[in-house]
Predict the structure.
Amino acid sequence: MDIQAGRYHDESIGSVVTLNLAEGEKMHVLHPQQIIAYRGPSSGRSDKLMNIKGMYRKHKLIQADFTGACRLIAALPPGFSLKMIELEGGDDLLYDFRNLFWYSSGIHMRTKLLSMKNMLFSRDVIKMKFDGVGQIGLLTQGLVCQEQLHPTEPIYVDASSVIAYPENANLELTVYGNHLASQHMNYHFKMTGQGTVLFHAGEHHRRLQQDMNDDGIIKRFLREVIPFGGVFIK
């Protein structure tokens, strides 16, 4: 499988990714609406309805299965990037379904029902887990970071930025720092355990841009030092 990513100089118009499948290779695409061009036999694409735990018993999604030899061109929205993950078997990361773009035919996707505690923390019911050897593609907002967990020394990661974490990681939803710091940050996952955590930086790019375009240091100062200042001071 050959994957090539190209980004225009003006990031406001997004980017494109080209995926070339050799003869007999298969790929399962979970966001087929992003495929804007296809070269190959008409029979090389087969769509089907997905039923992942009923997608919370509410939604039906289309999955497109492609068989090579063929060439796909996919459009990525502004601010999104593609992260490819190599799986070699024995992986225990749990992924957010919304970030999954595709996975190769050597991978088996299954759902994991979260514990009640993790449901409350992540505001999600299920996560996706993969078995087998192959590749998966993740759609992320901004660059992807990867940090190693420690059994006893925690890492704090913005909860809205987490893409994947080990199934057996210890999670706690919290804030950190002194009183002023804890008032003016998003909730974070306090994580310990074995393995790695993946998170993206897209949300924080937008926040910095908003701060840079803000209308005055006095208003910014008041928003920061007054509890709920961001709500009352416009």
Observations:
- The longest strand covers residues 126-141.
- DSSP finds six helices and 18 strands in the chain.
- The chain has a mean pLDDT of 80.
